[in-house]
């Protein structure tokens, strides 16, 4: 069972990279195509380093929701459920949230094992998770109303690049402090330790980060299309504000110790920057498909994990 858990967790980290990491890296690549290795390297470094430095509150919240009594089997059920749900959504070409699926699966396992749910924490996670794209959209809209200082047209590209040296590292740090801590949670599951103990295992964290970044590289082309045309036709300036709005939203969740979905926040920020231009600039059909996927992801994951745990009994 331990070997199976390791395989399932490695697959989960890879899929997380493809689902979460690829859109994250794709944002700056729309204007910095020649330097694709810079964002992926920054992600590879910060993903393990920040938890190693003691920033693991979000992973701690995930572990708090996990029913330890189910052991390795319960962990396989939880992670396997997420892989099935996200895999189905991917086959349907519908981007969904791994974080929502993970929280739903954790809740389903707890219910099946008659473990007490931390209702206040669960309500906080769900409510803030639903609010995250709305907050990111509002921030994206507000930032888009204040164009960056561009001295003259010839300096536009250099000015945007200078701003991006601040916004993109902030975005990656926000991910490592929040949504990316699913990776630390998986390392803790495989080790059978707490996330605090797992956070000190730099070697394992960098191995997991490598798997994550490989997953991100496999999804770059598809994510690039989503960033450019999935929600709205994005311009370099609006991509800059998208980064800033997404980072601010996710860092806010990190302060509260609440896991927030980077893909949800990124989608909301793209929506907000697009609306600032015109409501007609938004691809509302895509928005509706994504919204519906978010609505069913958590309950379906909870039901599947609940059923899988009962079968294991």
From TrEMBL:
Membrane-crossing segments per the record: 36-59, 71-91, 121-143, 202-220, 287-307
Compartmental location: Membrane
GO biological process: phosphate ion transmembrane transport
One of the record's GO molecular function terms: phosphate transmembrane transporter activity
Taxonomy, superkingdom: Bacteria
A cellular component term, taken from the record's GO annotations: membrane
InterPro entries on file: Phos_transporter (IPR001204)
Main location (coarse class): membrane
Topology of the protein relative to the lipid bilayer: Multi-pass membrane protein
Keyword annotations: Membrane, Transmembrane, Transmembrane helix, Transport
Official protein name in the record: Inorganic phosphate transporter
Organism in which the protein naturally occurs: Scrofimicrobium canadense
């Amino acid at each position: 069972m331990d070997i199976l858990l390791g395989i399932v967790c490695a697959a989960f980290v890879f899929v997380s990279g493809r689902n979460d990491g690829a859109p994250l890296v794709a944002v700056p690549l729309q204007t910095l195509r020649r330097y694709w290795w810079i964002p992926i390297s920054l992600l590879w470094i910060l993903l393990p380093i920040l938890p190693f430095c003691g920033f693991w509150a979000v992973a701690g919240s995930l572990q708090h929701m996990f029913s330890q009594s189910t052991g390795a089997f319960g962990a396989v059920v939880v992670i396997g459920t997420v892989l099935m749900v996200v895999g189905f959504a991917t086959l349907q070409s519908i981007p969904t949230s791994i974080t929502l699926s993970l929280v739903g699966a954790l809740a389903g396992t707890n219910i099946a094992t008659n473990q007490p749910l931390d209702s206040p924490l669960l309500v906080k996670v769900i409510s803030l998770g639903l609010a995250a794209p709305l907050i990111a959209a509002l921030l994206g809209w507000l930032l888009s109303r204040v164009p960056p200082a561009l001295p003259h047209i010839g300096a536009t590209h250099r000015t945007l690049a200078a701003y991006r040296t601040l916004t993109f590292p902030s975005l990656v740090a926000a991910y490592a402090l929040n949504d990316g801590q699913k990776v630390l949670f998986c390392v803790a599951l495989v080790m059978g330790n707490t996330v605090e103990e797992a956070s000190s295992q730099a070697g394992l964290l960098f191995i997991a980060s490598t798997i994550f970044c490989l997953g991100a590289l496999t999804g770059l082309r598809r994510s690039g299309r989503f960033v450019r045309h999935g929600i709205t036709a994005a311009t370099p300036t609006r991509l800059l504000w998208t980064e800033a709005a997404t980072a601010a939203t996710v860092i806010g969740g990190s302060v509260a110790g609440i896991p927030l979905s980077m893909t949800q926040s990124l989608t909301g920020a793209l929506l907000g920057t697009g609306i600032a231009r015109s409501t007609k600039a938004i691809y509302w059909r895509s928005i509706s498909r994504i919204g519906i996927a978010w609505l069913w992801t958590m309950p379906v994951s909870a039901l599947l994990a609940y059923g899988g745990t009962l079968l294991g009994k």
